[in-house]
Specification:
six-stranded parallel beta sheet, Rossmann fold, alpha/beta, 26% strand, single chain, 34% helix, 4 domains
Length: 448
């Protein structure tokens, strides 16, 4: 498949890297330095030019392409690029947008704007945050098989009851699979991926990836951190992400508080979010936070328009007694800094968007995709077909034919959960969720 990616920023580079091994990829960007850097880093053709311009699209070989993905930081450029491409060639188009007004227009008018698939970054980010609030101890959460299966990633604190136990001791949940452990290096960053066995010890600082039913993953979350339970949620910033996060939490029966400094925006939010308490104030005002009993807040979510302000607001809230802080971080290079200085989870919208686009580009192989450990592994969902390596065979036998670094995490059949055991026979039509290390991803996808 020939793919054109418009935009060589963080999202475009990530998407191009995920596709380059299996497809012919062309990347277009107006920034010559980015184009040059990408040429050296990836096996792609990089072109300097405006992706919304007809001559640039033709230079990129649009007529011979199957897919165009527009992921610049400008919504209008992405939409125009897709619309222009549709007038020139029979190509599938994907556009990344931040503003939900474009997403609403597209959702209410199929085929509108010349976009086949629209990825709403802000809404996806809000969904990611809301999912983590549903699992207090989790650093990352994704759902598979239409919500039947969850994948969650937990970092074990030193005081976690699970720290120091073996996998066999911690595995008290029938519908849960320990898929992988990301062990930290000397600097505390995830380094080695360990496929766990019963005698593998879970240590403080490890990041544990589990796959199972919603009930089982929730139960494991309480085992990891028994005292964590989010009832009192404070959202800092009435941005699109803040608004969408509050709306999603309302739907789950949580009544959050939201702080917005701008009077007009605060009034709009108060009218639009009937289940949210909107406060017009400065979230860095210490006296205000203390009056609002910040020390009783279970989790603060910072969704301001500035990374620096998100960091400041999150750290101040924690210093004054909030249990946990989740921050939106636009600049990828800041993620490690945020989590090193005290933010519990940094959510990067560009990474969320890249993951969603990767999922769409893998539809011929996978129903769903979640990226683990900064592209070091993936959890993928596949529907089993007649020619699959799984067809009619027990998992124990299939595992022997798969490369090291692959773990079968869960199975659904006709929408019902099936426990994956060694003697479980997989049937055509089953949905299988597997953990796959990046180094063996292509080999595994070819067999699935």
């Amino acid at each position: 498949m020939r793919v054109i990616v418009i935009g060589a920023g963080e999202v475009g580079s990530s998407v191009a890297a995920s596709l380059a091994d299996m497809h012919e990829v062309v990347v277009v960007d107006v920034d010559g330095d980015r184009v040059e850097a990408l040429t050296y880093d990836l096996d792609v053709l990089a072109i300097e030019g405006d992706g919304a311009a007809i001559e640039t699209l033709r230079e990129a070989g649009l007529e011979q392409s199957d897919l165009l993905i527009a992921v610049t930081d400008d919504d209008e450029t992405n939409i125009v690029s897709c619309g222009t491409a549709k007038t020139l060639a029979d190509v599938t188009t994907i556009a990344r947008v931040r503003n939900t007004k474009f997403l609403d227009t597209w959702n209410n008018a199929e085929g509108a704007l010349g976009v086949d698939v629209m990825v709403g970054t802000n809404l996806l980010t809000a969904r990611k945050i809301a999912s983590m609030i549903g699992l207090p101890a989790a650093r990352d959460v994704d759902t598979f098989a239409e919500g039947t299966i969850q994948m969650a990633e937990f970092e074990l604190a030193a005081d976690s009851p699970v720290a120091g136990q073996t996998v066999a001791e911690a595995d008290r949940f029938e519908d849960l699979t320990f898929a992988a452990i990301l062990c930290p290096d000397e600097g505390g960053e995830p380094d080695e991926i360990v496929i766990p066995r019963g005698d593998t010890t879970l240590s403080a600082g490890d990041e544990v990836v589990v796959i199972g039913t919603d009930e089982a993953v929730t139960a494991f979350s309480h085992a990891v951190a028994p005292d964590d339970d989010y009832h009192d949620v404070l959202i800092v910033g009435g941005s699109s992400v803040g608004y969408q996060t509050a709306r999603l939490l309302q739907e789950r029966g949580i009544r959050p508080k939201l702080i917005e400094r701008d009077p007009e925006r605060a009034q709009f939010l108060a009218e639009a979010l009937s289940g949210t308490t909107v406060l017009e104030a400065d979230a860095t005002d210490r006296d205000f936070l203390e009056r609002e009993n910040i020390d009783a807040v279970d989790v603060v979510v910072t969704t301001l328009e500035s990374d620096e302000r998100n960091l400041l607001a999150g750290l101040l809230a924690k210093r004054l007694g909030a249990d946990r802080a989740i921050a939106v971080v636009e600049d990828r290079s800041y993620v490690d800094l945020f989590e090193t200085v005290g933010i519990d989870v940094a959510v990067q919208p560009r990474e969320v968007a890249a993951e969603e686009i990767t999922r769409f580009t893998r539809e011929q192989h996978a129903e769903n995709v979640a990226i683990i450990g900064s592209d070091r592994a993936e959890v993928i969902e596949v529907e089993i077909e007649d020619e699959s390596i799984f067809d009619g065979r027990p998992i124990r036998e299939v595992a022997a034919d798969l490369p090291d670094g692959v773990v079968v995490g869960a199975i659904t059949r006709d929408g019902e959960f099936v426990r994956p055991r060694g003697d479980t026979i997989v049937e055509p039509g089953d949905h299988v969720v597997v953990f796959v290390e990046a180094a063996v991803l292509d080999e595994t996808l070819a067999k699935l």
